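CORE FACILITY INTAKE
Project code: CF-77B
Contact: R.S. (postdoc)
Sample description: multi-component assembly, two entities in total
Requested service: structural model of the whole complex
Turnaround: standard
Below are the sequence entries exactly as provided by the requester. Do not edit them.
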Amino acid sequence: MKEIEFNQCVDEYANSVYRFIVKNIGHVEDAQDIVQTAFEKLWVNRSKVEPLKAKSYLFTVAYHQMIDHIRKEKKVTITANYEEAGAKATYQKDPELKQVLLAAINELNPTQKSLVLLKDYEGYSYQEIGEIMNLSESQVKVYLHRARIFLKEKLAHLEKVAS
Amino acid sequence: MNINETNYENYFLLYIDKELSAAEKAAVENFLVAYPTYAVELDQLKKTIQAPEDIIFDNKALLYRLPAMEANLSPDFKNKLYKKSARLFKVEFNNQTKAALLSVAALFVLLIGYRFIETNSEGASNSIVANTVKPNTPKLSSDHASLEKKDAPVYTTVTSAPKKISYRLNPIEELAPATNPIATINVQETNNLMAQSMPITKEATSIQASDLTSNEIAQVANELATNTTSKEASTLPENTSYQVVDTDEEDRSIYIANLEIDAAAIRGITRRFNALLKRNKTDKEK
């Protein structure tokens, strides 16, 4: 990977990686640090990383950085202050539903949260997610399905309460 | 593939995750047509999908790499910065060459030892005769036995090559009878004292030349003697005994067969060799 290709990666993937991290840890500065570290590592290892694999390399590095960060900080209570970072809903038409879903997602454990975000935001396949998160494909499938069912039940419960 | 009311959820989850093949997708859709009540459940699962958000990373400038940031130093300049520790010449021996060298060294030592013993036994008879300066005066020769006895250990280091040592001691000898009772100058084994005594002889001869009486000469000589040799002169016996010691380093030599070798040079070589072996050893230990 050359300098030009690296800078293209910055253009194309910096937002995605940042979004993935900030959604996970809910802290803007820490997320920025992690993104910066990920790109730093990509630059250092640019001779070994093929341009086509750069995105998953960035996500892999960022994910593991984030896990380290979570372990260090032991941030169990995650605030949703990334809302102030200019997040705008485009999919859920219902702003209320979106709020509910965000709250539900924050109740997931970090692994499940990462799985959901990698799947929904980045559209990675189970296999790719497994590579990024160092899990087997079937683990990804089981964990992700468990997270979905949890979210579904949360939403169903809230809808019942609302109605 | 058979989607039924017991396994539909797994297929629904795979469906929303877009992990199904085209055929499987069609099967799920067919199931929903057959069982429309499950469509609500699929909708509920679809709602769990996170909508991608436009979250922007503001500090992209931190991430870009510009050519100026990677101002690499030229290899030539880098080479100037590298530090090289001076590599010493290192000799590596394998076991065979070590054994060979050891045996050669042993032979060498034996040869030197043999030659040393041989020259020592030869030298004992030769050197003493060659180097002893015998005084002519009868008084001194009367003490000859004790003189030779004293000399014997001193001359062991002297070379076997006969040579002359031309220290002129005559003036003192001439003066000796006149100053006999008092001026007993013992020139001891050091060169230093020898050097000191030389001016005495000069002065003594000059005194003699001025036709002074024997008493006066004796007085002057006595003064000179006490000045130069202090206490020793007065306490020593009447007989004057001279010892000439060859302490000249350059004259020390080793013979290997008929080849004369400078001992100092050999010592230098052996020292260097020892130092090299030591260095090798310490290097290996490291």
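Facility notes:
- Chain B has a mean pLDDT of 68.
- Chain B has twelve helices and two strands.
Invoice: internal transfer
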